[in-house]
Amino acid sequence: MKPFPTVRRPLARLAAGLIALATALAPALSPARDKDIPEAEGGIVGTGIAPAGIYGVITGLGSIHVNGQRVVYDPGLLVHSPLGSMTAEMLEPGDVVAVMADPEGDDWRARSIDRVFALIGPIESVARGSFTVMGSQVLADAGELEPGDWVAVSGLWQENALSASDIEPIPPQDHALVQGTWKRTPDGVTIGGARLEGISPTHAGPGEVLSAEGQPIPGGISAERLSFGIFPDSAGLVLAEGYLADARDGSGMYILLGSGLVAYTENPGMIDPEQRILSCGSPADGGTVPQELAARLGCTGIPMMDPATPR
């Protein structure tokens, strides 16, 4: 096989924040439950409150910057990755991460960092400005990559396509991977544009994030193992980056793709599935959100999405 080129393309910084979207959607949102935001006595550290979850694309180094938040980490902190563990110092702009963190001064200190890949597998076809991996269109130029080459792609799902933030050519692996929001279609279950065969997610709820590992097949993956969610533990509050799924299916539910966050609207026409946004998600246990934590993440005064739950 020809030598793999280096193809790393960090995405541009977030062009439009959540405030504009929240202003447009606020009258139409119907959160599943109201969130009380009490004052936190003595701050957050040491009170037993769950850490924040931060999911998005790294935009800067000197520590890491994700979704406008600066996250520091202990030297040598191991980052969990489907391609094998690495240290946090090896992360680069364009990598997508799921961080569990606690407030520290004006920043956050990472408890754990997971490097998130949406697709790991062989290229099926190449077109101008895009290529396809296991049935999912990747919105990026393939450069010198060719069908049959294996890649690990980071990015944010935009309906059935992946807006790539980083493309890493890799040797062929024992297993392929697809991670994203699952949905059931007339033709079966899909994750992004990949058709899921093998194992069926019988108890998965609408909007949940599903990670499927298995063997690549034309147009999809034959799953040998399924797992759910993007964080290793429950988060007290989530700040996530992504694109909204089109909510015009009559249910009123819309999803921040790849994040596991859902909400409802009575005016689905106001949702723009082409706008990249930040959104906040409430605790999975239904608990209260400390005001300090919400304020630090920019989550006060805006409607909050809920975590998707199993059926």
From TrEMBL:
Chain ranges of the DUF5666 domain: 121-168
Highest taxon, organism lineage: Bacteria
InterPro entries the record matches: DUF5666 (IPR043724)
Official protein name in the record: DUF5666 domain-containing protein
Species, as recorded: Pseudooceanicola pacificus
